[in-house]
């Protein structure tokens, strides 16, 4: 089965909003063996939407649309679908009452403008929306079946699971494509690709591919099967081999993040930690505390941006800063030791560097970052040169992840 995903909204075509729905829908459709031929983004203009629907229905058996089902004048998807089908809209009294009840449950009266959300092209079928006011639509347009879902991601996903997924499953014979993504840190994409080159052969099944984002290398494994169990076995067998070859470069899979993995290791080993940050401005602490339950292991974070703060809060000697500069291995070490002492944590991370765009020199260019890790009586300091080609945000983010990975590797050494 071939499909086209249509995303409706001028906020998308103008770049004001990122279209996450299309990526999610393509991933879900692929799981059922559906080949998504095109992603098409269309503004809130009825003629453009009509043209996109007509073209999509000539190219695919399945068209999934999101957006444009609201009650305002610029929500034109239902009108465009009706025009493309050559039929009028018809209001459904039961759906008007459902929308009215939705408002009543929240202590509000339904604005009359919301009545349009209960109007559907004649011959189409409404799709119930359990968590919003906009019902979806299922219709036949030419040789294609069209599903129209709201643009709100939570509503779209629930309605997809209830209406589109069963429809697709019935027509693909239960065949399914599953995937898993292994996340790696500490080596470049080309290095990782060399280690698993034969697994990435184009004619191989399962398929393996890599991508990179902000220093994290993602290794994706895809496998199809007549059943979910068959596909899952194939995915797991290749994933195990990827892990074997890459070792500790792999820190997690799928929804796992580097901060969540570090947090799990800290909790499993009964250890606490603290941070002392300069150039990252508290980003390491933020990433750690973004994880629910992080209070079990994270004690405190200090942002010692100014040299005076490094001295006052972390006991970094003034003479050391004068001799070596704030961005140096000795200062990073002193920051980590001072943070561990001040917080009473089992381990402490420190970060000091030059995030740019200015402030660099020939000896200490933009992108130079020193990271310290104090764990008991042992202190480790590493120096990194992330490159002047990265912008300030990328350097800070790369430094924060590198610090967390340093801690991860240290924790893996502990029983």
Write a structural description.
The chain has 415 residues and is of the alpha/beta class. It folds into three domains: 2-171, MoaB/Mog-like domain (Molybdenum Cofactor Biosythetic Enzyme, Chain A, 3-Layer(aba) Sandwich); 176-253, Alpha-Beta Plaits, CATH 3.30.70.2860; 258-413, CinA-like (Maf protein, Alpha-Beta Complex), CATH 3.90.950. The chain is built from 14 helices and 17 strands. The protein has helices at 10-13, 20-31, 46-59, 77-85, 93-104, 153-171, 189-195, 228-246, 258-268, 283-289, 307-314, 318-324, 329-343, 392-413; strands at residues 2-8, 35-42, 62-66, 89-91, 119-121, 125-127, 136-141, 144-149, 176-184, 207-213, 216-225, 250-253, 273-277, 298-303, 347-353, 368-375, 378-385. Strands 2-1-3-8-7-6 form a six-stranded mixed beta sheet, with helices on both faces. Strands 14-13-15-16-17 form a five-stranded mixed beta sheet, sandwiched between helices. A hairpin with a 2-residue loop joins strand 10 and strand 11 (216-225). Helix 2 packs parallel to helix 6, helix 3 packs across helix 4 (77-85) and helix 9 (258-268) packs parallel to helix 14. It is elongated, with a radius of gyration of 27 Å. The mean pLDDT is 95.
């Amino acid at each position: 089965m071939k499909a086209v995903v249509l995303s409706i909204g001028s906020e998308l075509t103008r770049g004001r909003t990122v279209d996450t729905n299309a990526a999610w829908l393509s991933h879900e459709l692929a799981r059922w063996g559906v080949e998504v031929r095109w992603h098409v983004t269309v503004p809130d203009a009825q003629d453009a939407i009509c043209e996109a629907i007509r073209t999509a229905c000539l190219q695919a058996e399945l068209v999934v649309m999101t957006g444009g089902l609201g009650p305002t004048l610029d929500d034109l998807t239902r009108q465009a679908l009706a025009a493309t089908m050559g039929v009028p809209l018809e209001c459904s009294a039961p759906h008007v009452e459902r929308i009215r009840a939705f408002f009543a449950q929240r202590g509000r009266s339904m604005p009359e403008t919301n009545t349009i959300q209960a109007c559907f092209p004649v011959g189409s079928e409404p799709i119930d929306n359990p968590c919003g006011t906009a019902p979806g639509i299922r219709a036949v347009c030419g040789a294609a079946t069209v599903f129209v879902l709201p643009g709100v991601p939570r509503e779209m996903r629930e309605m997809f699971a209830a209406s589109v997924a069963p429809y697709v499953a019935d027509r693909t014979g239960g065949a399914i494509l599953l995937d898993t993504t292994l996340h790696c840190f500490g080596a470049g994409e080309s290095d990782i690709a060399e280690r698993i080159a034969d697994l990435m052969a184009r004619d191989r099944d399962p398929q393996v591919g890599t991508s990179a984002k902000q220093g994290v290398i993602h290794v994706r494994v895809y496998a199809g099967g007549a059943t979910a169990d068959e596909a899952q076995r194939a995915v797991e067998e290749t994933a195990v081999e990827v892990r074997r070859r890459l070792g500790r470069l792999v820190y997690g899979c799928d929804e796992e993040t580097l901060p969540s993995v570090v947090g799990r290791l800290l909790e499993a080993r009964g250890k606490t930690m603290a941070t002392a940050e300069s150039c990252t401005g508290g980003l390491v602490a933020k990433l750690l505390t973004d994880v629910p339950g992080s209070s079990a292991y994270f004690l405190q974070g200090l942002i010692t941006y100014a040299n005076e703060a490094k001295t006052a809060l972390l006991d970094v000697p003034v003479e050391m800063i004068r001799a070596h500069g704030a961005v140096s291995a000795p200062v990073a070490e002193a920051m980590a030791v001072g943070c561990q002492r001040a917080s009473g944590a089992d381990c402490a991370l420190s970060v000091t560097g030059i995030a740019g765009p200015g402030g660099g020199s020939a000896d200490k260019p933009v992108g130079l970052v020193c990271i310290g890790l104090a764990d008991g009586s042992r202190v480790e300091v590493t120096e990194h040169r992330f490159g002047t080609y990265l912008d300030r945000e990328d350097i800070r983010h790369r430094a924060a992840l590198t610090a967390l990975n340093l801690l991860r590797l240290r924790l893996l050494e502990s029983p």
